Amino acid sequence: MSKYRAIRTTVDGITFDSKGESKRWINLKQQQKDGRIQNLKRQIAYPLHVNGDLVTSYVADFTYDEDGTEIVEDFKGHVTTVFRLKKKLFEAIYQQPLRVVRLQKNDFVLGFKPRRSRKTRK
Q1: Beta strand 38-50 with 69-75: parallel, antiparallel or unpaired?
Q2: What phi and psi values does residue 65 have, to the nearest 5 degrees?
Q3: What is the reported pLDDT for 4?
Q4: How far apart are the C-alpha atoms of 77 and 101, rounded to whole Å?
Q5: pLDDT at 103 (0 to 100)
Q6: Is beta strand 69-75 parallel, antiparallel or unpaired with respect to 98-104?
Q7: What's the confidence (pLDDT) of residue 120?
Q8: How far apart are CA 1 and CA 95, in angstroms?
Q9: C-beta of residue 61 within 8 angstroms of C-beta of residue 43
Q10: Which three-class secondary structure string do you get for 65-100?
Q11: What is the pTM of this model?
Q12: pLDDT tens track for 13-67
């Protein structure tokens, strides 16, 4: 179990970082079988270069084609500040959105969980 309480799970002989990510894999495989998406891949690395220097790399959980457009997707149960930074770098460098998917009850939803407001002391 990770510090964010994610439980590694194995599906189809593939080990995923969390149960949610493995459920998303099963969901995307079904979408591919139904013909809604094509070219489903996982763990694709994208180097993030700034001014010719490799700053870091981003590894996408999933990539696939949807209606002729490449979708780069990350499943998130918990969003870290490092991920937020890598997302912004990826979108600036590759000029395409990075789709964030999370599990809410039993449905997959797009986007980050709303942040809890920080209370200010008087």
Answers
A1: unpaired
A2: -105, 130
A3: 58
A4: 9
A5: 82
A6: parallel
A7: 60
A8: 35
A9: yes
A10: EECCEEEEEEECCCCCHHHHHHHHHHHHHHCCCEEE
A11: 0.82
A12: 888 888 889 999 999 999 999 999 999 999 999 999 999 999 999 999 999 999 9
Residue 21 in tokens: 């990510």
- Show the CA angle centred on residue 86, arms to residues 107 and 27, nearest 5°: 25
Enumerate the domain spans of the chain. 9-102
Degrees, nearest 5: CA angle 49-52-54: 40
Structure-block tokens of residue 23: 């459920």
> Which tokens belong to 114?
């709303």
Both structure tokens of 38: 């094509």
Give the length of the chain.
122
Q: Report the C-alpha gap between 60 and 67 in whole angstroms.
A: 19
Structure tokens at 90: 């990826």
Please report which residue ranges of the chain form alpha helices under DSSP H. Answer: 19-33, 81-94
